[in-house]
From TrEMBL:
Annotated protein name in UniProt: EPS biosynthesis protein
A Pfam cross-reference name: BBP2_2
Source organism superkingdom: Bacteria
InterPro entries referenced in this protein's UniProt entry, alphabetically: BBP2_2, EpsL_proteobac
Record-linked NCBIfam families: EpsL
Membrane spanning stretches: 26-44, 51-70
Keyword terms of this UniProt record: Membrane, Transmembrane, Transmembrane helix
Amino acid sequence: MVYGQQGLVSSSSYERFLLGRGVTNFLLMFIEKHFIFMFLLQACSYPQYRYLGLVTFLAALSASFSAVAASDDVFSPYLDFSVIHEDNLLRFHDAASALAVTGSEVMADTIKRTSAGLRINKIISQQTLIADLSMSRNRYSHFSQYDYAGKDASANWGWQLGSHVSGNLGGSYSEGQTPFQDFRAIEPNINRQRRENFDAAWQFHPSWRVRGGYSQYALAYDLAVLQYNDRKLATTEFGLDFVQPTNSTVGVQLRHIRGDYPNNLIVSIFSVDNNYSQNEFKGKVDWRVSETASIQFLGGLVRKNYDALTKRNFSGTNSRLVANWSASAKLNLNVNAWNEVGSSSDLSANFSTNRGVSSDLGWELASKVRVNASLRGERRDYTGVAAVIGAQALERKDNYTAASIGLSYMPIRHLQLSASLANEALSSNFERNGYRDNKLQFNGRYDLGLD
């Protein structure tokens, strides 16, 4: 037994206290030296990222004050280790395709991922400050050219003025390997994503609420041949809602998106400018069916106009339905259905019509055991105009399916162990585009937050 200022505690509790404090201090110094200051300086040096720098600074400042006050629930450092095996990492159609591209029929790989992070959560009166910072090391057993160090950071200030005006000011940054489902590039392809957002809502009448928001998103690829997909999106949104006593709402929403692609797509002798403006007018419904069930709907008209090659302009309808049901405190179900027009990176069509449905189930079998399962299916019709002058639209059609099931177990308060199995498949009328992948993942996460 060990005696201390807080009274009599067990040696194991005291050791865990020292371990948590030591690792917390180490993580803070490490992230401060290698991540936060670089992140803040870079964010604050550009006007378009000033909100992100401000929010991260507020979260860090709040965490510092909380550390002085020894408020352990503000900080939550964590360590995470994963082993992931995929039998078709690069999404080849078959072994012959792998041999033709890589010189080997090997399609499978095992990835080991180690990460350390820090979550910050602080409530000050009506204000909520949340931040999550992490760094990861990813190592591939066979395709070692994809080894990379990942970085992720997010921060949000949930602000409120009085009882009728509230909103969010936040941002995020991520750096990591581009998913192979998006681009099947043989060379390493790190992408960097930034997002800043601000929104506000004012309930000026017991039954009426007006809202608005602005966000910026930037995506950049390391791989030169894919930099034509680098983009910056600026989104402005306004809405008006009728609010019922049950907190159900019915309203309308206007959205404008400006998309800028700094690098033109070069195909043979053609240079394609993909800059565009998009306008949306949608109806929005949030129906609180009961205390345990809700339904959301967002749908309406979408029109996209390109700066160049205006024959690619298109208009259509987007709609999405979301249903949530908590059958009990231990069982939750979420179902999504959508019919949306989306942009396409396929040169034979500038957009695709995507129709799909997905479901997610969470079931707490026992106090320390939980099962999660998901299903997803989507039909993608690439029926737009070809991006290259004189090219013929190929009317490609894809069917995408994905399923997963996972089990998590918490043997002790701060440790979570989990395992999951997933299957992903794509079939297409262009047969060589199809693939199938199976993934097995084991994960261990230790939360160093103290009691």
